[in-house]
């Protein structure tokens, strides 16, 4: 304790809790009940905290302490912190104000008073809360279907934030939610689990902090839609094949074992995940089975499509699904070939 330079102006008093303070005379404060429990004051980081102590004319000396350090003795400031000052309203209030509160301001604050009988104290505990902040999250990643994925999301805050993981794309409705789950493990990831993952850190101090991870799942092609064609001789025939895959599939067309390419009378178009085979000026030789092949580096899949004539359709009273028509189409193709041989003979 610093020795008083003016003994008639300063006295040294010891609080009941062994906190020592140097207090000037002549500043009245309200007497404090020693049996009262410590009050908590909760403040958010960056805000201004006011720790209140009220005065009356029954006591003569007062000081503010943080643990064992003197902040104010009477109106004399002992702290070098420019953020700290007094809030006084005449002789009625002796409150401590701390601007731009930070975590190192957290702790016990004591308003110490001197009465004629003995020193008394009012103790308050300042709790500093910090908004949740995500300081590290996994980078965007690409994985093959069936692989294992671990996503990490590290956050700070006071109190400790709860971490929530959520898959945002419409095809993945599953939601993972666990408090303090910094790591999300996905075993045997499926294609419908690809998309944008949201990590949200929240502790009710401020608006939750949110960051995102994009997960791409590679998988081999799957042909999801085909469209055969019934076309008259002399018209244009169109066959269509649609496949899904990641990466985007490449397409090839075959007639029997021969690969088709853009040439006179044949036009192959690829529009994203769909390919279209167009054959101009159909002849009877063009009728039959065609094969669409979709492939990427993970695999391939093929599908059969049919170009058939109106002559064959007339043999069916109603329009049937392709699997019903398939035997009929084969018979029709045989009939067409027989007709061709008959024409050549005659």
From TrEMBL:
<dbReference type="InterPro" id="IPR036179">
    <property type="entry name" value="Ig-like_dom_sf"/>
</dbReference>
<protein>
    <recommendedName>
        <fullName>Ig-like domain-containing protein</fullName>
    </recommendedName>
</protein>
<feature type="domain" description="Ig-like">
    <location>
        <begin position="119"/>
        <end position="214"/>
    </location>
</feature>
<dbReference type="InterPro" id="IPR013098">
    <property type="entry name" value="Ig_I-set"/>
</dbReference>
<dbReference type="Pfam" id="PF07679">
    <property type="entry name" value="I-set"/>
</dbReference>
<dbReference type="InterPro" id="IPR003599">
    <property type="entry name" value="Ig_sub"/>
</dbReference>
<feature type="domain" description="Ig-like">
    <location>
        <begin position="28"/>
        <end position="114"/>
    </location>
</feature>
<keyword id="KW-0325">Glycoprotein</keyword>
<keyword id="KW-1015">Disulfide bond</keyword>
<dbReference type="InterPro" id="IPR007110">
    <property type="entry name" value="Ig-like_dom"/>
</dbReference>
<keyword id="KW-0732">Signal</keyword>
<keyword id="KW-0677">Repeat</keyword>
<dbReference type="InterPro" id="IPR050876">
    <property type="entry name" value="IgLON_domain"/>
</dbReference>
<comment type="similarity">
    <text>Belongs to the immunoglobulin superfamily. IgLON family.</text>
</comment>
<keyword id="KW-0393">Immunoglobulin domain</keyword>
<dbReference type="Pfam" id="PF13927">
    <property type="entry name" value="Ig_3"/>
</dbReference>
<feature type="domain" description="Ig-like">
    <location>
        <begin position="221"/>
        <end position="296"/>
    </location>
</feature>
<dbReference type="InterPro" id="IPR003598">
    <property type="entry name" value="Ig_sub2"/>
</dbReference>
<dbReference type="InterPro" id="IPR013783">
    <property type="entry name" value="Ig-like_fold"/>
</dbReference>
